Amino acid sequence: MEAADFSTLGAAGHALLVVFDPARFVFLVIGVLFGLFLGVILGLGGILGLSLLLPFTFTMDPFAAIAIMLGLLAATSCSDSIPSVLIGVPGTVGAAATILDGHPLAKQGKAGEALGASFFSSMSGGVIGALCLAVSIPIMRPLVLAVGTPELLAICVLGLSLVAVLSSGMLLKGLAAAALGILISTIGMDANTGVMRWTFGNLYLWDGIEVVLVALGLFALPELADLFASGAKQIAQEGTKATRFSQIEGAKQVLRNKWLLIRSSLIGVSLSSVPGIGAAVIDWIAYAHAKRTVKNADFGNGDVRGIIAAESANSAKDGGHMVPTIAFGVPGGPPMALILGAFLVHNITPGPEMLSTRLDITYSLVWTIALANVIGTALCFLFANQFAKLAMVRVGIIIPLILSIIFIGAYQSNQEWGDFYTLAVFGVIGWVMKRSGWPRPPLILGFVLGALIENYMFISFERYGIGWIFRPFVLIVITVSVAGILWAGWSAIKTAMANRSERAAVSFSMPKAKNLFTILALLVFVAALIGSTSWPVRSQLIPQIICWTGAICCALQLFMELRGGAVQAAGNGGMAHGGETSAPGFCRRTRTYVMWCTGLLAGIALIGLLPAVLVFQIAFMRLVGKERWGLILPVSIGYAIFMYMLFQHIVHVHWPQSVIGDLMPRLRSATRIL
Q1: Phi, psi angles (nearest 5°) of residue 234
Q2: pLDDT digits (tens, 9 = 90+) for 404-456
Q3: What is the Cα gyration radius of the chain?
Q4: What would the pLDDT profile of 645-666 be if each residue is shown by its tens digit?
Q5: How buried is 605 (Cβ within 10 angstroms: 0-12 exposed, 13-18 middle, 19+ buried)?
Q6: What b-and-e string marks burial along 225-236, b requiring 16 or more CB atoms within 10 Å of the CB?
Q7: Are 137 and 327 in contact (CB under 8 A)?
Q8: Which residues neighbour 219 within 8 Å (Cβ) at sequence distance 6 or greater?
Q9: Contacts of 1 by beta carbon, 8 Å cutoff, 6+ apart
């Protein structure tokens, strides 16, 4: 397509006509449908979908290619909240914060209201993000150029300071959890010095740990464990229907909180405009902002405003990510790297050209993002009642299906056996944190920001020396960050003093099960502190700072717990759970759940991933769910065929090797799944 000169209005009008051209509009709808599907399937998401679509866009015209790819990306941000609300498992890492209030609402029988608020917030955030993209390119260009690594570091520190809000009143635990997340983010090769940190000679750990595995382990596996251990027959204990009325009520809630919607959307756009600030952290920052600013809130127990904040920011990020992609050719996030690849294939050069002679292409991005959000939301509203019925599916059916998706989705991270082990480790960590009353959101926030903080700090010192600290923007942001943590600390001290005055006596006690994670975290920090002393100064700087911080927080927390201080009831940092957790039946069912998960891993090693999943589902449904064969066989076999076609013939996965495949090479060669 030849470049042409357009006025701003002329380019916008021309782009709208082109997008609505039937031959191109159909590609937008196809992208939206594909995106909705990927958002619901756990562990997949926009990056996988874009990588699948990219080769097919080579022969399309630029507008059709943009339509199908951005349609997929925007729709994924809309549908990934469905599993978050209904089963407490994030569809993508960008929907993790939605669990905190969406899933409690579903368990209260208000799935329709939660989904309605989620869909409408997502659509509104996506449209606001598109509008911001439309008006911000000429404005944002000089601003983005003025942002250096010191400013990026200050923004990351500001995001990290929000652990005080995400800790649900448990400041010491929140800070220690964030420190643990940062420490985990240092696993792998240090990009600045080449030193291997915490790899223990394992090649799998050289590149670090994928955020998808951390999110699924921390949130998905513990939630399913508690669902199984509770003995519940289904996720929701009351009638869960997403009627038109309940969905409209959810949308009305969004309109009643329009200023929160706008603020959260602007947070999503602003943060995503900074390269490196990805989807895994944006929804948490918006959620923390809402928790700090909304009055009379009950976040974590089914407050719809938590959904509004998280979902609007999550969808608005697509418009923000396009700003540096268009202005400088720098991908605003991982999906934008693939979008940029499509640009280059079609001879679209980011930079001044897209702000002058290719304005029609630029505005087609705006229209596509806005339309994709509207179409995706309309489809979600239309089929919300069918989605909501997932919450009423019997536990004996839903757990093996979801566990299978989690294991298959986790394997997509690196397609190595280490993915399963990593998932299992973080599943145990997440469950112990939940039972010990430790908040999990700060850990994943620290994990996502840790690598960015270390990288930006290294570059800042190399380029500016100590002087980077005194840059005006840096001083302001760091002052605000420190003030926020100090204020939260002072509030916690006042609360503790008030509680202490109400107690007649204070006495020390022996450590108990609820102190388990505090003790384990303290030991980890001490061991890491000692183990990192042999590294070069640049490699040990961040780990040493983090280990000292985490160890001090854990020691203080343990001291408070053992001296009989006011300790928050065991919870999960905002993710409510019900039922008696100390009863023998609960413990017995928890052990049974662990045995089933271990059996699935053993089956994968013995007969391969897909065959093990099929056997696991049949056995679980029959032995645990007591389901009839007329239901078990069609569901299990249909699921296996679907996964085989998707991952074998579309995604082309290299399946993990199994014992039976090693013993029978011809069978492995014939099936290609062993």
Answers
A1: -155, 170
A2: 888 887 887 788 888 899 999 999 998 888 888 888 878 887 887 888 788 88
A3: 25
A4: 877 777 677 888 888 888 888 8
A5: middle
A6: bbbbbbebebbb
A7: yes
A8: 88, 89, 90, 96, 99, 430, 440, 575
A9: 61, 62, 346
Measured in residues, the chain has a length of 674
d(CA 290, CA 286): 6
Nearest alpha-carbon partner for 604 in 662, 674, 545: 674
Give the Cβ contact number of residue 562 at 10 Å. 17
- Tell me the C-alpha distance between 159 and 288, whole Å: 9
pLDDT value at position 651? 65
Please answer whether residues 137 and 326 qualify as being in contact, where contact means their C-beta atoms are separated by less than 8 angstroms: yes
Task: Compute CA distances 106 → 79, 261, 387, 416, 625, whole Å.
Answer: 16, 21, 12, 35, 22
d(CA 115, CA 119): 6
Assigned token pair, 360? 């029609």
% helix, strand, coil for the chain, step of 5: 75, 0, 25
| Domains in the chain: boundaries | 8-500+511-562
Closest listed residue to residue 612, CA positions, set 561, 546, 658: 658
Q: Is 197 helix (H, G, I), strand (E, B) or coil?
A: strand
Q: Identify the band that residue 598 occupies on the pLDDT scale cut at 50, 70 and 90.
A: very high
Task: Name the strand (E) or helix (H) holding 463.
Answer: helix 441-464
Q: DSSP states of 286-344 as a string?
A: HHHHHHHH-TT--TTSS-HHHHHHHHHHHHHHHHHHHHHHHHHS--SSHHHHHHHHHHH
Instruction: Determine the Cα–Cα distance for residues 150 and 453; give it in Å rounded to an integer.
Output: 10
Q: Which residue has the tokens 């004996």?
A: 396
Rounded Cα distance, 565 and 175, in Å: 19
Residue found by looking up tokens 């008696």 in the block: 580
pTM check: above 0.85: no
**Per-residue confidence at 276, pLDDT binned at 50, 70, 90?**
low
Q: CA 170 to CA 492: how far, in whole Å?
A: 8
* pLDDT at 510 > cutoff 60: no
Cβ contacts of residue 495 below 8 Å, gap of 6+? 169, 566
- 639-667 b/e with 16+ CB inside 10 Å = b? bbeebeeebeeeeebebbebeebeeeeee
82, 102, 251 from 245: Cα distances, Å: 18, 18, 10
Torsion angle of C-alpha atoms 433, 434, 439, 444, degrees rounded to 10: 70
Tens of pLDDT, residue by residue over 341-357, are: 777 777 777 766 666 66
Question: How many Å apart are CA 429 and CA 443, to the nearest integer?
Answer: 11
Residues 13-72 pLDDT 10s: 777 787 788 878 888 888 888 887 777 765 556 666 676 677 677 777 778 888 888 888
Do 290 and 160 form a contact (C-beta atoms < 8 A)?
no
Which positions ≥6 away from 414 have C-beta within 8 Å?
204, 207, 210
Specify the higher pLDDT residue, 587 or 1.
587
Q: Give residue-wise pLDDT tens across range 171-205.
A: 888 889 989 999 998 898 887 778 888 888 888 88
Is the CB of residue 405 less than 8 Å from the CB of residue 613? no
Q: Could you give the CA distance from residue 267 to residue 253 in angstroms, rounded to a whole number?
A: 20
